[in-house]
Amino acid sequence: MSETTFLTPEEVAERYRGSVSVGTLRNWRAMKIGPSFVKIGKAVLYRVDELEAWDDRNRVQCRASKRIEQSAGDRA
Fold this sequence. Notes:
Elements: E1 6-7, H1 9-15, H2 22-31, E2 38-40, E3 43-47, H3 48-57, H4 63-75
Antiparallel strand pairs: 1-3, 2-3
């Protein structure tokens, strides 16, 4: 059985280096937006794999990065 890692809202805020505050996470939960979470009693926990998936869904790719990837693909 694989072990799932969970983070508290404080740890999530730290993961995003303060760009997302605990208050923002609270507001997002109330509005049902942002990363998914688990609530057990009063405890709110975020699965690390869900945060990584959320990161992927919100990734912004710049045009220069696309050109670099395309030229690397041409050489392969």
